[in-house]
Amino acid sequence: MGSSAATARGQSGPGASSTCIPRAGPQAACSRRPGGLSRPTGGCCRPRNGKVRMDSEIRDFESLGLSPRLVARLADQGINDPTPIQAQAIPHALKGRDVLGLAQTGTGKTAAFGLPLIHGLSGSGARPDPKTASGLILAPTRELARQIVEHLRALTRGSHLRIELVTGGASINNQVRALHKGVDVLVATPGRLIDLLDRKAVRLDLTSRLVLDEADQMLDMGFIHALRRIAPLLPRARQTMLFSATMPAQMEELSRAFLTDPVRVEVAPPGKVADRIEQSVHFVPKADKVPLLIDMLGAHKAERSIVFARTKHGAERLMKKLVAEGFAAASIHGNKTQGQRDRAIAGFKGAQVKVLVATDVAARGIDIPGVAHVYNYDLPNVPENYVHRIGRTARAGAEGRAIAFCAEDEAGELAAIQKILPEPLRVAGGTPWKAAQAAKGGKPGGGGGRGGQQQQRRRRRSGGGGQGRGARQAA
């Protein structure tokens, strides 16, 4: 069958693989889907070694099967060669297959799902019905959603496709009006989409293409209940692509709920960081963190840096201290209005702002070239977030540095982070805390200290992370 994994073609690279996740039950016939898509409804074919053979001659976008118009648009932007995740995912997506894509940050996942989505919708020629979206892309944060829209609009300029953004922090009445005539691609955060569904401003029964981007962060932010509400509103006959940089255990539930017979494309082990990031850790008392950060930022004052803090109030206080020391700094977190967040990002992009202090709300929503340094001023409670934070540097093949500050009560967080990394972080300063002190930090994976314990209690109460107030505000 044309969409069989055994005949799928793509491009392989070091450490790359593409496999099918089989479903139980006998092989079934193809079911037709809206927009001319089809997919197998039973099991999938798998070569003996568990991997799909890939054609080595696929080295450019034209060879992937994209339309000449899209290839020309990419060339106009100076993009001629697909990244490994693009070379592997796009051929499967063009055949209508569901795709589970695993790749580290900064590897081009947006184009990996955006290009086949645009290709399919452009070729169908169908106009969306009122209050419907032919394609839906869900992203965990406003910044990431806005970034996706910017990429897609650059690729569709001059075409008939309508792409709309709906996130929190903007007028919901304006969004209701924008959706009234229907859109080709809707990019949304889960919280705001739920709000619009409750107002009956949009329906999803005709959405034939769905993308979940950075799905693991949606789980971290407590959007699992929102996703459970959204899933039954979508037609069963659809194409779904799910992309993530890590593969936590709860992703299995998400995969079963949204994907059917997916092809798994993986260009690096889940949680792997970019090879060009030089990582190190400083063991430093909490009271000495600010002076150390000021010294390190001062040594590279002309370069862009992102500093990650754990809390919104902590990020704001730290930003004000840096401004008082003469640094061109701004902050971005959940207490900022959308306009304030947009101005901070614009200033950082334009280099008027050299230091951006952020909480994890920005960890996957910033795709700005030239970020030389990422400072983990506070270590994250969720170890996988370390990977996403430092992925803001060394984008698109560049080099970068990631520096972690570890206070005594963060030893548990550091231990959890070390477990998901292939090798220990290089000690650049201070003396590692003793094993007895590390034990006080809490169990690895849960995050030591009061913040980590509070987060664990909240997750237990909500059954694995509910869509709480913080998550809705972040969206």
TrEMBL record:
Compositional bias segments (type: Gly residues): 442-452
Region Disordered, annotated ranges: 1-48, 431-475
UniProt cross-references to Pfam families, sorted A to Z: DEAD, Helicase_C
Chain positions of motif Q motif: 59-87
Keyword ATP-binding carried by entry: yes
Superkingdom of origin: Bacteria
Single GO MF descriptor: hydrolase activity
InterPro entries: DEAD/DEAH_box_helicase_dom, DEAD/DEAH_RhlB, DEAD_box_RNA_helicase, Helicase_ATP-bd, Helicase_C-like, P-loop_NTPase, RNA_helicase_DEAD_Q_motif
GO cellular component: cytosol
Name of the featured protein: DEAD/DEAH box helicase
Record organism: Halovulum marinum
Upper classification of the organism: Bacteria, Pseudomonadati, Pseudomonadota, Alphaproteobacteria, Rhodobacterales
